[in-house]
Write a structure and sequence with these properties.
The protein has 87 residues and is α+β, with helices and mostly antiparallel strands. Strands 1-2-3 form a three-stranded antiparallel beta sheet, with helices on one face. Helix 1 packs antiparallel against helix 2. The protein is globular, with a radius of gyration of 12 Å. The mean pLDDT is 93.
């Protein structure tokens, strides 16, 4: 069963949101950086989507986004998301 409240997942979502004032690419890079180097963790999905339609965003998009992260941690699936505003 997926969990959405693991410390690593929260850290990655926090990092993504903290980069929101620097645009979409910075948000993705921040989330990836928070996960890199963790042993027994594989990033299986990282996406920024429109929270109303779950569709991909165009380059340069500004507005509310949903960051979706899915990890494999020691063989267990961990996923979560968070909505926030990106400049």
């Amino acid at each position: 069963m997926p969990h959405s409240d693991t410390p690593l997942l929260r850290t990655a979502l926090d990092a993504a949101e903290s980069a929101a004032d620097r645009g979409l690419d910075a948000v993705l890079a921040a989330a990836q950086s928070a996960i890199m180097g963790e042993s027994h963790v594989t990033l299986t999905r990282l996406a920024l989507v429109n929270p109303e339609t779950n569709s991909p965003l165009d380059d340069g998009y500004r507005g509310v986004v949903r960051a979706v992260i899915q990890l494999a941690v020691g063989g267990e699936r961990v996923d979560g998301s968070r909505d926030f505003y990106v400049n």
